[in-house]
Amino acid sequence: MSILEKIKTEASKLQKNIVLPEGEDGRVVKASAEAANTGLAVVTLLGDEQAIKAANPDVDLKKVNIVNPITNEKTVFYAEMLYKAREGKINKKTGLPEYATVEDAKKAILKDYTMYGALMLKAGDVDGLVSGACHSTANTLRPGLQVIKTAPGIDTVSSCFIMIADRENEYNPDGVAVFADCAINIEPDAKQLADIAISSAESAKSIAGIEPRVAMLSFSTKGSGNDDKYFKSVPKMQEATALAKEMAPDLKLDGEFQFDAAVSEKVGKLKAPDSPVAGKANVFIFPNINAGNIGYKIAQRFGGYMALGPICQGFAKPINDLSRGCSADDVVAVIAITALQAK
Ligand SMILES: CC(C)(COP(=O)(O)OP(=O)(O)OC[C@H]1O[C@@H](n2cnc3c(N)ncnc32)[C@H](O)[C@@H]1OP(=O)(O)O)[C@@H](O)C(=O)NCCC(=O)NCCS
Q: Which of 66, 193, 210, 304 has the smallest C-beta neighbourhood within 10 Å, fewest atoms?
């Protein structure tokens, strides 16, 4: 069974309720029906039922729960929640309060269904949110950052890719690895990197189904190199390693490692003989988005790995961002992943 099939099988057992705010998007509507009809999840789609059905006459939506924010009796309750959650916050562009009144908050959520979905999630009316088929990453993540916030002990929302091998690879016997953060945090500091490492270990367990062994990556292994004159990234990775070990003492995590020291038993033994992770890593934390984004694309194009993601991690409740080029099948896969994160 492929990893994606395993993810779907596990998700089906959980029957989590996932909200998809983009009822105006045909791919999202098709995926909602597929997820509901195959029993993958309970699906809540936002929009006007008649308009959605008229625009998608061939899609069987009987099992999809369609909620229209304009007529939903809980809309005022969600507006009050948003007003309270953001009280005192100033809009950076206008210099004015984000929402001066509950009525303002209501107007805003009737324009921004991703925020509406995030409030349903905050209220516990759904278990996860999937959006971004027709909205930017920033517009998809901002409602979550503003009202869902981060998981206990974690201050940073980040992302990871689940990298799935298409052939046997002596350096990756699990056939699957986790790469982070390749998409959200541009230049994370040591604490943010520690958060990314802990969240990625959680994603490795809950989504990829592997026991995490986390490598904090660098061009240096255990102090073999330094970039003190430039970016000071080696001490940053060393500090991040120490912080992550303090935050999760039972987690198998170590660094800083060059990639070969992290995955090759031979190089690992030579360069970091006492490390429990060297030579055996399956979760890889990159020092910044440049290294991470370039790294995952090399594995994808030269190494034949399939890259599943970016998957958001570190939120108090799961939210995932779709790519605007996604297919209905991609949306179904992200619904399954989000359900596993809601476990
Ligand atoms: C993540 C991102 C969307 C946040 O954008 P933003 O709305 O401008 O963020 P702001 O700085 O205004 O912060 C909004 C809130 O989110 C919080 N926040 C921002 N980034 C955060 C993070 N990574 N983790 C936790 N909280 C975060 C802020 O603290 C702030 O909280 P507050 O309003 O309650 O005080 C933005 O950093 C981004 O676009 N990153 C790159 C994503 C991208 O395009 N990737 C390419 C895809 S491959």
A: 304
